[in-house]
Structures are given as structure tokens and as C-alpha cells.
Amino acid sequence: MTGRAGSAGGSPDRVGWQTGGARLGRHRVLKALVNLGIVAAAGNLFAPPAEAEGRCEKEAVDLIRQQCQPMIQAVRRGGGQFLYRGSVGPQDGDCPFQRVNEVPDLLDETTYGKQGASYFALMEKWLIGRKSPIRPSNAHIGVADAREAGLWGQACSCWPVGHFDYLWLEESRLIYDSRWEQRQPLWSDAQTVNFISEETRINSKMENGLSKQHEIMFRAEVYWLVPAAYDVLLRKALHL
User: Fold this and answer.
1) pTM across the whole model
2) For residue 184, what pLDDT band results from cuts at 50, 70 and 90?
3) Residue 92 gets which letter from DSSP?
């Protein structure tokens, strides 16, 4: 039924990861980069920025304040807990505040494995039946825990632009967990769908998911990613 490769799904559209003509899963790529020390690992997530706040940071903060009020309000109601994603981060010379549009990949076997793809396919079918605006095929996963996001790249707080849809699981911190595959006996598809239907909260009380440090699936056309090193700056600027 399930299998978990990491905390956040999605492949950056600004970088095309290819090997032997086959697309690599985002989590595998980010894990390799962490191991090589190319992107930040969990141990140094909150090191202060190397340079003083520059013009691009100031302009980006102003845009986040203007464009991301629904998310800002959710964070405020959630006690100030940010949502994070692991990212390859900005390239040298780029503004560290990145406005991105990533390609959803939750149904891709290279993201969460074959069992994970099967789990999200069942969730997809259930959500379509409910006419939900958010589904694995059009969404990404973040986690309200910077250190967990940092296991899969540079931990960046995530700020959807404008209206966005979301879902999270009431009791399970993870939307998908490979340990579920160790259950004996294994769940049938019907049992899995029953679990999804009982647990899933769609566009409801995101602040609870944030305050509990749960994973949250979200659908947004565009969103900002800001390295966790700027958390203090953002909290001050956004009055969080």
C-alpha cells in the first residue's frame, strides 16, 4: 500500500535532472546532494545568511507580504509554525528567495517508490470521486518541521501565492509512511481507501496541521521558497 521516500514531493521545473535518459526522483537527487555536501543538511539549517540582507530579499519579503496572505494567516493561526520543503536551493548569485512552479510527482514511482505511487493513486481516485480541487496529480507535500525537510535538501519555508488548496491527515503525521507496509496482514485497497476517507481533511483547519508539525499536501500555481536561515527575518517582517 505505501512506502515513503521523504517529506516533500515535487521536481523543480528550473532544473532538469536526467541520468541515462531516465528522470531521477527528486528525493533521490536531493539525498545525493545532501550526502555530497552540495546542499544544506539538517545540522546547519539555521546558520545566519552569509551576506547582509540585500535588495532582492527586501523586495521578495514585500511581495510575499502582498501575495501570500492566505498562507500568512494560516501560519499565524497555527502559532507561527512554518511549512517547509526540501529544495536544491538557489544557484550561486541567485536571490535566495525563489518564486517557483514545480512539477507534481507524487504519482511517480521514482518519488516514493512503487508502493507509494499505488497509495497516492488510490488517494487520487478517492479525491476525484469527492470532486476535490486538490489531488496528488496536481499537488506537492510540505512538512511543518524544518529539520525533517532538511533531510531532503535545503529546508525552505513555503509560501503559496494567493488562494491555494490543501489537505492533511488528522491522526497520522505523515501523509505516506513506508512502515505501513510492515502491517500484518497487509491492508487491502478497500482498507487503504477507508483509512484515507477517515483521516483526510480537505481545506479545513490547516492551522491544526501546522501546529502538530504534520505533513500537508498543497496545490498552488506558484509559491515562494525561502531558506530556513531567513526564518527570523521573515517572522519579523511578517509579524509572525
Assistant:
1) 0.77
2) low
3) T
